[in-house]
């Protein structure tokens, strides 16, 4: 037996999500985010509440320099423009060159030819993790997708094979989020059954999760398990926030509170992670 926060007899004993949350908070990693205008504020607040240190830095003149000093980088294509794409590519190359993990969030990559082109280009730059909803991961893997703008229109289960193929192609981890999340390194995988239906009713909670994933990668040593832990942590905060929430507005406020309130012990007890 052990007195660490994680019971040894969970369905996925290797993940030890409570320990990973504690490690992330102890490191309080600096996470650089090149994200969309919608997400900037909520994502920064989510990272602060969880225990990380966010910086929204996107100018072409400094994005690569900042990636060299940050502990992780995240890139989100939600509100694209050509100047930002140059900045994203430079930052991703810098992160890779400096051995820093970086995460791609391919928002609505299925919606236009420009998004598809930029998404594929960025996916080719060795992201440590791609995190998207089912429609985004399906599209990036080369399959047909039924999303509506930033919202998913496909079930997570339909994107699992595409996620494994995409992971094999990029050499990184791929996570598909929705009612039950799925994460894979192309061979092994986990399903994470935490979360609440109010989460997709608040904008940019997926974008913010991408930042949390960056923070867990920065502090972790086993990327597949780091992301399984990050997904369980985020979903558990959503479950707890929904208790007593009157709707999406009060839920959003309570969710930020819960990202700060969930302890490693809470996560060890509440994570619903199974090998897949
Ligand atoms: N129906 C649902 N039930 C429970 N949890 C959900 C549900 N839908 C999404 N989630 C959770 O919401 C979080 C965000 O995932 P989601 O798939 O909605 O991201 P997204 O589509 O990229 O969001 P956005 O682009 O609007 O920021 C994840 O933690 C996921 O598990
Ligand atoms: C609503 C929206 N539009 C572009 S990015 C974004 C945030 C959710 O992805
Ligand atoms: Mg999204």
Describe this structure in words.
Strand 3 (72-76), helix 4 and strand 4 (102-105) form a beta-alpha-beta unit. With 276 residues, the protein is α/β, with parallel strands linked by helices. Helix 2 crosses helix 8 (205-219) and helix 3 (63-69) packs parallel to helix 4 (82-97). A nine-stranded mixed beta sheet has the order 2-1-3-4-5-6-7-8-9, with helices on both faces. The chain has one domain (17-275): 3-Layer(aba) Sandwich (UDP-N-acetylmuramoyl-L-alanine:D-glutamate ligase), CATH 3.40.1190. It has eleven helices and nine strands. The model has no long low-confidence stretch (mean pLDDT 95). The protein binds adenosine-5'-triphosphate (ATP), 2-(4-methyl-thiazol-5-yl)-ethanol (TZE) and magnesium ion.
Number of domains: 1
For the report, how would you describe the main beta sheet? 9 strands, mixed
| Amount of helix | 40-55%
What's the overall geometry? Answer: globular
Query: What is the CA–CA distance across the termini?
Result: 26 Å
Number of helices: 11
Described by its quaternary structure, the protein is single chain
- Fold-level CATH name: UDP-N-acetylmuramoyl-L-alanine:D-glutamate ligase
The secondary structure category is alpha/beta
How many DSSP-defined strands? 9
CATH superfamily: Ribokinase
- List the helices and strands in order: HEHEHEHEHEHHEEEHHHHE
CATH class: Alpha Beta
User: What's the average pLDDT?
Assistant: 95
**Order of strands across the main sheet:** 2-1-3-4-5-6-7-8-9
CATH architecture: 3-Layer(aba) Sandwich
**Beta fraction:** 5-15%
Unique bound compounds: adenosine-5'-triphosphate, 2-(4-methyl-thiazol-5-yl)-ethanol, magnesium ion
User: Regions with pLDDT < 50 over 5+ consecutive residues?
Assistant: none
